[in-house]
Amino acid sequence: MDPYSSQQFNQFQQMPPMQPPRTNGKAIAALVLGILSIVTIVSIWLSIILGILAIIFASLALRDIKRRYEGGRGLAIAGLVCGIIPTVIIGFLFLIGIAFGIALINS
Fold first, then answer.
1. Distance of CA 74 to the CA centre of its chain
2. Do the Cβ atoms of 24 and 30 come closer than 8 Å?
3. CA distance 67 to 60
4. Contacts of 69 (CB under 8 A, 6+ apart)
5. Closest to 93 measured CA to CA, from 44, 57, 20, 38
6. Looking at the DSSP assignment, which residues form a beta bridge with residue 71?
7. What pTM was computed for the model?
8. CA–CA separation, 107 vs 101, rounded Å?
9. How is the chain classified by DSSP, letter by letter?
C-alpha cells in the first residue's frame, strides 16, 4: 500500500464549519433602550424609564450569555453603560435641584 494514497486520508470525516454563536436578543434590546435613553434625556421621565429598562435587559442578557454561550456580550455591556449614564446624570441633577430648593427655603 502506497503511504501517499488517498484512502488513508479518506478514513476521517471532516467537521462541518462552526457556526458563529447566536446574538442574544436581550443584549440588542438593552443597546437600543440605552441609546434611546441618551437621545431622550431632555424628556426626563422617559429617559429614566428607558435607562432602567436598559440596565435590566443588559443584566439579564449578560446572565443568559454566560449560561448559554451566546454572542452579544459587547452589545449588553454597551447597553448597560448607555442606560447607566443618563440615569446617573438625571439623578445627580435631581439631587442638585433638591439641594438648591432646600437652600432657597432656608434663606
1. 6
2. no
3. 11
4. 21
5. 44
6. 23
7. 0.78
8. 10
9. --TT-HHHHHTSPPPPPPPPPPBPHHHHHHHHHHHHHHHTTTSHHHHHHHHHHHHHHHHHHHHHHHHHT-B-HHHHHHHHHHHHHHHHHHHHHHHHHHHHHHHHHH-
Length of the chain: 107
Contact 38, 82 (CB under 8 A): yes
> Angle 25-39/44-68 helices, nearest 10 degrees?
160
The tens-digit pLDDT sequence of the chain (107 residues) is 555 555 555 566 778 888 888 999 999 999 999 999 999 999 999 999 999 999 999 999 999 999 999 999 999 999 999 999 999 999 999 999 999 999 999 98
C-alpha cell at 70: 451566546
Chain position carrying cell 443588559? 58
